[in-house]
Design goal:
2 domains; mainly alpha; Double Stranded RNA Binding Domain; 3 strands; Ribonuclease iii, N-terminal Endonuclease Domain, Chain A; 14 helices
């Protein structure tokens, strides 16, 4: 896995002629202000000291802090790291499932991965680590609400994985995932649960020789750091369902859930 990821990341980071450490130094130049208890907390989570404290400060920075006028030009929120961490986590979980479930077909692997990396599961992992208590929030934000928010916790958890990957490499990120996801007491329960409605909707369209479902954001509401997205799912131009959540992928799941509930109800009435 190490060799594969070395080749893959080399392609990504060298495509523009820049090395990974050059990108880190360019993007995270400001001094870190993490409190000592958070530094100790992160070292305990990762299992070793970090090399770039600024990465971890960014991973813990909620966008409410960035939107404070006094700090807007000085810091970066964790949204970019969340984007990276989401991809890294998806790859690591995919690799783990592929290696440990050789008899599982592609559909089952995809379904199990979705159960593990959705915001509800990730927020649960983050809560068990007490991650919310270490989030860096804006003065005007509702601190209690954000520290227990499913969206904020899931984003911070993925951002932390992105920071670990950039700072320590893919193997340390994989070790973190093993300790705090695969070995989590709720891991088997999460995998056994049936709540991946997007996968179920795809399976339904495939079985009925229909085109894949199309997800579209139809509205965005709320302040920048507390946005809410409403997503519609359609197939062959027909509206199947809508869903609203703070993260687009969660809104997509809710839209798919409504679609599957309608489909199931329709099948029941026909029988």
């Amino acid at each position: 896995m190490e060799q594969f990821w070395h080749r893959l990341t080399s392609l990504a980071f060298h495509r523009s002629g820049e090395r990974k450490d050059d990108l880190e130094n360019r993007s995270y130049e400001s001094n870190t202000t993490l409190p000592p208890e958070t530094v100790a907390y992160l070292q305990q989570l990762i299992g070793e000291p970090g090399n770039n404290p600024q990465l971890y400060q960014t991973a813990l920075t909620h966008r409410s802090l960035v939107h404070n006028p006094a700090t807007a030009d000085l810091i970066e929120s964790n949204q970019r790291l969340e984007f990276l961490g989401d991809s890294v986590l998806g790859m690591l979980i995919s690799e783990y499932l592929f290696q440990h479930f050789p008899a599982s077909a592609e559909g089952e692997l995809s379904s199990n991965r979705a159960k593990i990396v959705n915001s509800k599961s990730l927020a649960g992992f983050a809560r068990s680590l007490g991650l919310g208590q270490h989030l860096l929030l804006g003065e005007s934000a509702d601190h209690h609400k954000i520290r227990i928010s499913e969206s904020a916790l899931a984003d911070a958890f993925e951002s932390l994985i992105g920071a670990i990957y950039l700072d320590k490499g893919i193997q340390t990120a994989f070790d973190f995932v093993i300790r705090h996801i695969i070995q989590h007491p709720n891991y088997k329960t999460i995998v056994a649960a049936e709540h991946n409605y997007k996968s179920r909707l795809i399976e339904y369209t495939q079985l009925n020789h229909l085109p894949p479902p199309l997800y579209t954001v139809i509205t965005e509401t709320g302040a920048e750091h507390e946005k809410s997205f409403t997503v519609a799912v359609t197939c062959t131009g027909q509206l199947l369902g809508t869903g609203t959540a703070q993260r687009k992928k969660d809104a997509e799941q809710l839209a798919a859930r409504e679609a599957m509930e309608k489909i199931t109800a329709g099948q029941s009435s026909e029988s």
